[in-house]
């Protein structure tokens, strides 16, 4: 039985994955152009990072079309988000999602629409427990 691979991307790897989830398959050049809109980063830095993500960490697949390499993300966006969220809640909020929610709601102005949406969600959760 094969064990599901657990990916733990670094911040830089996560930036690349986020672009790929929206624009895959993509070339190193395309990734570089999109990342360069957010911050200054060298082309060879992105190239090396993506090579490591492919060769060493198996986070990316690569296909060749002519002289161009096209990269695709292996991990699913929802899986990475769930893993990072769980780790964050465990590390920062001692495993309590409720503390996270209370902290988030207490730190910003919540609109009437957001409160209504939250109430609908709470009502749905109550129905599930009955």
Cα end-to-end separation = 37 Å
CATH class of the domain at 11-73: Mainly Alpha
What CATH architecture label of the domain at 11-73 applies? Orthogonal Bundle
Question: Which sequence of strands runs across the widest sheet?
Answer: 1-2
Overall mean pLDDT stands at 89
The name CATH uses for the topology of the domain at 11-73 is Arc Repressor Mutant, subunit A
Task: Give a concise summary.
It contains 6 helices and 2 strands.
Features:
130 residues; mainly alpha; Arc Repressor Mutant, subunit A; two-stranded antiparallel ribbon; 6 helices; 2 strands; 9% strand
Task: Give structural notes.
This protein is mainly α and 130 residues long. The chain has a domain at 11-73: Orthogonal Bundle (Arc Repressor Mutant, subunit A). Helices cover 62% and strands 9% of the residues. It is built from 6 helices and 2 strands, in the order H-H-H-E-E-H-H-H. It has helices at 11-23, 28-36, 43-55, 77-92, 97-107, 112-129; strands at 60-65, 68-73. Strands 1-2 form a two-stranded antiparallel sheet. Strand 1 (60-65) and strand 2 form a beta hairpin. Helix 2 crosses helix 3. The radius of gyration is 19 Å and the shape is elongated. 16% of the residues are buried. The mean pLDDT is 89.
């Amino acid at each position: 039985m094969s064990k599901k691979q657990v990916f733990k991307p670094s911040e830089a790897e996560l930036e690349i994955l986020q672009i790929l989830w929206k624009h895959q398959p993509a070339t190193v050049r395309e990734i570089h152009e999109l990342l360069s809109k957010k911050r200054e980063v060298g082309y060879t830095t992105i190239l090396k990072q993506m090579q490591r993500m492919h060769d060493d960490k198996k986070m990316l697949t690569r296909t060749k079309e002519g002289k161009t390499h096209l990269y695709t993300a292996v991990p699913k966006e929802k899986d990475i988000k769930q893993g990072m969220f769980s780790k964050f809640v465990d590390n920062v909020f001692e495993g309590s999602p409720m503390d996270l929610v209370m902290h988030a709601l207490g730190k910003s102005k919540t609109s009437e629409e957001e409160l209504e949406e939250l109430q609908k969600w709470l009502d749905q959760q109550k129905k599930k427990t009955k």
